Amino acid sequence: MPIRVLPDVLIDQIAAGEVIERPASVVKELVENSLDAGARRIEIEIEGGGVGLVRVRDDGAGLPAQDLPLALARHATSKIASLDELECVATLGFRGEALPSIAAVSRFRMASRTADAAHGIEITVEAGAPRPPRPCAQSPGTVVEVRDLFFNVPARRKFVRSVATETGHIARLTERLALSRAEVSFRLRSGERVLLDARAEPDAAPASGADVGAARVRSILGEEFLARALRIEHTAGPVTLGGWIGLPTASRAQPDEQYWFVNGRSVRDRLLMNAVRLGYRDVLYHGRYPAYVLYLSIDPRWVDVNAHPTKLEVRFRDARQIHDFAMRAVEQALAATRPSADVAPPAASPADARAAEHPGAGSRSPWALASAVRDQPPLFFDRRGSGSLELEGVPGPVAGVWRGALAAGDSDGAAARVFDAPPDDRPLGTALAQVHGIYIVAQSREGLILIDMHAAHERVLYEQLKSQYEAASVPSQQLLEPILVRLKPHELDAVLEHRAEWERAGFEVSSIGPEQLAVRRVPALIGGREVGTVLRAMLADLELDAAAHHLDGAADRFLGTLACRTAIHAHRRLTLPEMDALLRQMEATERANQCNHGRPTWARLTLAELDQLFLRGR
Question: What is the structure's pLDDT at 374?
Fold first, then answer.
């Protein structure tokens, strides 16, 4: 077949296949044109999931009569005129492809009027064939109607899903657009139903990269999102990151509440999404996704928006620097998630959390919590005297703190003092008792605190190990005689392959046979008699596929597993000073609201909730 020049109609349909994937793509392109035109009010109407009709009406600047036919010409645009302008483009659209692509696969009508024009001008197109413009009645602004999408491309129309599915895609897209611009009102209707009505915030400034206000986020994602989110503001030179990130306990089963905006443009960029994922890496358990709304403001010359047909992905001039900037910003914000007297972490009860050693904290309902406590046997006080306290199995870093606490007074005295109101600077209050050797019960000024002692101790140890590992100063002890551990050949190979990481964490290991591992040095937090058990448990955990692990990076997985396996486990009876020492360490530890699997470490039942349980004041 000889080479030939394709007809314009076929060229437009080929281009439409890249730009117009489904009805939501039509809405995206038309609304972005409205935003570029300076619209402050945008109304979207759809029928049949957008296949029957998409109508977008705005109050923007409008088009002069002479420009209306040019708007439908391929690669005709008013937004750039040179390569220099393309490299620093600040508008949402710039290629001049969207309108001709849409008109090529639909029955198309566009009417527009500028503020100083006496009347509007409209133009219609059917299957790529335009008709001459003509005058029409039109208020200032532009209205675009797209009917019978893909009517002339049956193969594409077969891939369109059900009305409900396509309507859902349009609704979610409109929510993203509304989150990008708080100064613009958005209204989405499907037939007679109003699917979204986001009113403009009068005091909002144009979102040229700065994040929108809480009112718009609340109108789209609800009050619950803001109540369980952290405000984030981070600046480094000309780059600014703002917005909200959900608490780890507000994680979701699917990544359906993740919003990234770069200079006001909604993107689904893998580099940015990965940066957030790494920022959450040791506060979420595997299979859960954080919720966030984040706005990145950057010099347009440092980002290439002309990297994807639908402009959903961008390319940064210094991708590694931007990735690390975003990751560190999220990481630092989450580092502040430690026990606070002002805010208690909402208890989580997803099924994933129960896969860890103990069940999660459960429902925040005071009735549910009271039922859980009521069904347990009576609480007991561990009141062994300081002379009989055994710290042999307690990891070294915590044992030292506990010994200091015991030296301050006997446990009987501590038990008598716990009923006094604790100082204001103790968010977790003062320990009262243990429940089944699993939970610590404490009293604070606000009410009752429940702490999962294994999860709490795991976080404390993990943060200590990370700091020591980064400083290459993990305390360790040389053994008088090596401990011999019998392993399977592949397990022995796995240890020797990562010997550097083991040694940096305080171990000294070597092979003395095909199935014998000699351990000559161990971290100080491991008692000698526990080495074999800890090593086997760590090997079993580390054998998991790295992609299925809750932590990224070999070092983090190693330290997380070491902390989990050496932390206090269930049914270890602690004295009151020991419990108090753990609470004080939690209050001083970053990310202490979750263990490194992402489970909550504590929950609060306020005095008001206790009064509600017993109908006090009624």
Answer: 35
What does the alpha-carbon distance between residue 613 and residue 618 come to, in Å, rounded to a whole number?
11
DSSP 304-368: E--SSTTS---EETTHHHHHHHHHHHHHHHHHT-S--SS-PPPP---GGGGGSSS-------HHH
CATH number at 351-457+569-613: 3.30.1540.20
The Cα–Cα gap between 221 and 223 comes to: 7
Residue range 45-78, pLDDT digits in tens: 999 999 999 999 999 999 988 888 888 877 666 6
The fold adopted by the segment(s) 8-198 is: Heat Shock Protein 90 (3.30.565)
Instruction: Give yes or no for a contact between 240 and 296, defined as CB atoms under 8 angstroms apart.
Output: yes
Question: What CATH number belongs to 214-335?
Answer: 3.30.230.10
What single letter denotes the amino acid at residue 135? P
How many whole angstroms separate alpha carbon 162 and alpha carbon 155?
A: 16
Residue 178 is predicted with a pLDDT of 94
**pLDDT (0 to 100) of residue 88:** 59
Q: Which helix (H) or strand (E) holds 144?
A: strand 141-147
The answer to whether residue 402 scores a pLDDT higher than 50 is no
Same fold, 8-198 and 475-566: no
Rounded to a whole number, what is the distance in angstroms from the first to the last CA of the chain?
89
Q: Is 406 exposed, middle or buried (0-12, 13-18, 19+ CB in 10 A)?
A: buried
pLDDT digits (tens, 9 = 90+) for 1-26: 677 776 766 666 665 556 788 999 99
Question: What is d(CA 371, CA 373) in angstroms, rounded to the nearest whole number?
Answer: 5
Q: What burial class does residue 516 get, using C-beta atoms within 10 Å of its C-beta: 0-12 exposed, 13-18 middle, 19+ buried?
A: middle
**Measured distance CA(76)–CA(94) in Å, rounded:** 9
Q: What is the pTM of this model?
A: 0.72
Q: Are 102 and 59 in contact (CB under 8 A)?
A: no
**pLDDT tens-digit profile of 339-369?**
876 555 544 444 343 333 333 333 334 334 3
- Domain spans in the chain, listed from the N-terminal domain onward: 8-198, 214-335, 351-457+569-613, 475-566
223-226 long-range contacts, CB within 8 A, separation 24+: 225/250, 225/257, 225/291
Write out pLDDT tens, residues 125-181: 987 788 889 999 999 999 999 999 998 888 788 889 999 999 999 999 999 999 999
Domain boundaries 475-566, CATH class:
alpha beta
* Rounded Cα gap, residues 555 and 336, in angstroms: 23
